[in-house]
Structure formats: C-alpha cells, structure tokens
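B., you asked whether I could sanity-check this one before it goes into the benchmark set. Here's the sequence:
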Amino acid sequence: MTDLVLEAKARIKLDIVFLGLSITSSWGNGHATTYRALVKALARRGHRVTFLECDKPWYAENRDLPDPPWCRLGLYGDLDDLASRYGALVAKADLVVVGSFVPDGVNVGAWAIETARGLVAFYDIDTPVTLAKLVRGDTEYLTPALISEYDLYLSFTGGPTLDRLESEYGAAMARALYCSVDPDDYFPGTAPETLDLGYLGTYSPDRQPKIDRLLIEPARAWPEGRFTVAGPQYPAGIEWPANVARIDHLAPGEHRRFYNAQRFTLNVTRADMVAAGWSPSVRLFEAAACGTPILSDWWEGLDAVFEPGREILVVDGTEDVLRHLRDLGEEDRQALANAARARVLKGHTAAHRAAELEAYAAEAFATTRRPASTA
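And here's what the prediction gave me:
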C-alpha cells in the first residue's frame, strides 16, 4: 500500500481493544515484540488502545514489561472472567483484534464477535502455521467457520495466501499486516562488532537443520570465527562448537546491542512459512534497522521485501556462508547494511503498520454496517 493511499484515508481516532497472546512477556513469545511496536505506534497516532491478556503462569513469572506505557492493560483468568470484567469495554470498542494462539481462542473469538458492536478482526501472527493446523483438523484457536465471521483477517503472510483465505475459507477481507520494527529501539551502534555471525530465535525442530547447515557447520569449518545463538528452549543434546556462544534468552531491550555486535546476522525461516512464502520475520526488520547485514534462507516473496544481492544475501549452504563472512569487503558489507536499513525505514516500521491498520479499518467500515466513532 502506497504512502499516498495511507495518507488519503480518513484519520479517525479509534477505540481499539487487542485480545492477544501476551504483551507483558517476551519469554518464548515472539508476539510480544509485534504487539509492543504496533500498540505504541497506534497510541502515537492518537488511538485509544487496551490490551487484554490471559493471565497464564508462564508469562506471569517472566514479565519484562508488566505495565506497558502506551495502552491500558487488562488481565483475565478465563472466558467468564473476561466477559464479566471487560464485556462492556469490548462492546463499545470501534475495533476489536483477536490474535492467534490466544488461549481458548475459538471461544474468545466467538464471544468477541457476538459482543462487539464495532469491527472484529483476527490478527494471525502465525498464518502458515494456522492454516497447516486447520488442514490437520487442529482448531486450537481458530476454526474454518469462525474465519468467515470476522470482519477482517489481518495476516502476517501476504501473497497467494490472502486469496486462499478469501476463496477457500470465506474471509470477508484478508489483508497483509506484516511484522515491523520500531526505529526508536533499533538503530546502528558505534561500538566495534565482536561477532562474525549471530542468530536470534526460539528453538524449533523444523528450523534446526538449517541452523546446523548455516551456522554450526560454518563455525566448525572456521574455528577462528566468532558465532552465537540466542534464544530459549534448545535441547541439551545439541553439540555446540567451542566458537559458538549460547545465550538462553534476550529480552527485546537487549536485541539492538545483540545485532550491533554482529558483522552479519542469520535469518532462518520455519518450514510452514517457507511453504507459504511472503512471510517476513520480525528479525529481518530488526536486524536491518540496526544496520546489520543479513544472510537468509530463500522463500517465495523475499525479493518483494528486500532485493537479493543489494539489500540481503541469500545463502543455501556452509560454503555460501563462509564466502560472505570471509571474503565480502567492508565497503560492500556496509553498502548492503545501509540499503537494507533504508528499505525498512521506507516501508516496514511500526508507524507504517499502524497506518495500514487504519486504512484496512476504514475500508471495512465502508463495507459493513458497523460505525466508527470520530472522537
């Protein structure tokens, strides 16, 4: 969506309620980074935002943002508690956004649709995973029938998946709302890089073979190189080379320093995302905003986000990785980093996503009977 279209949309001030997995804890929860950036950007644009989160012990014990400054926070125990404490709030909201992987998500979504007088959207931060689950008959947080009940389906995946959501599942409006980055939090540093290649991500069995091939094997082949892997839930049985440092968890506030310390960072995409394509990871945007050159696996649609060879380097094996780490000149490395950062600042910040959400809401209001307030 062009800047011209975004600015042409009516700038109504919305009362928005998110029902998301967690905004208070980033521990093993990639959703938190997305919600924090988007909610902050929406608040800056004058919208009133409330975030409602199921008070699960895992997140309660690991909260690194217990009181988000950009929104009202509400915690609830179960659906009955949600309805009794926040039913009136949801009913009067202009826009209610139910996220993927929300506990008891099917019932929560159905309740939100029945309760809200404004728009109700589903925000799928895991679209390929969601659709793969539905094909298997797994309706953990969404059912095929519920998709058609939402006024708007916001998807982390663009491209052909949007057509599939509308034609196969009956989504009223399927629109891409990719992850993003807050440039206030992610920017280049001045300290010298101390790592040749780093990777940030929670352990996933389908990603690990690529991490083996694109980081662990290069580390074994180049003992003088300096590598690191940050993220929780890695099993004890993995044999890390001596020159690969392990960090169990990095809170979002530490991500910038982590990227700034790397000469290159590695992006590895989950299998469902590769199969669907058009699913950029938030790590891509974070690293690029920090001015850190990116080595990435390939998936369809990557070239619509970054230009391979100029803004990102696509790697398929150990030799690809080592060639870039050891042979790419410093001038070319900096040019790659600068081009990627410019691309992100032009189209992939949280402010861009907030404006896109405004435009989608305006489009949905125009095609439904639900009115938007102009307060």
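One thing to flag: Confidence is low (pLDDT under 50) at residues 1-10. Otherwise nothing jumped out at me.
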